[in-house]
């Protein structure tokens, strides 16, 4: 079983939205102390998420490139993911899944680009 967790970043001076990524909690903890651990092992996918309400709970959507540029100064997913990993905060209850389950199987349903929890 692998624990899944959200890493959340917000910058209230630039936006009221929170942005987050899903990580393997145990590997993320190792990565925080040892940056030689590959980011690809830490994250579930190179995807950045927000919600319709701007928080980190609710219907999950992909933020616009404009939103990413406004907050991060760049919009390339890999750069934003690494920024969130370095500057974000672990939030939410980690829950388990087996490694054989799909990337979005942590209680999510993907529909037209939206991930629903």
Automatic annotation (TrEMBL):
It comes from the Eukaryota. Residues 98-107 have a biased composition (Basic and acidic residues). Residues 92-117 are annotated as: Disordered. Residues 13-92 form the Ribosome maturation protein SDO1/SBDS N-terminal domain. Signal peptide: none annotated. Coiled coil: none annotated. This is Ribosome maturation protein SDO1/SBDS N-terminal domain-containing protein. The lineage of its organism: Eukaryota, Fungi, Fungi incertae sedis, Zoopagomycota, Entomophthoromycotina.
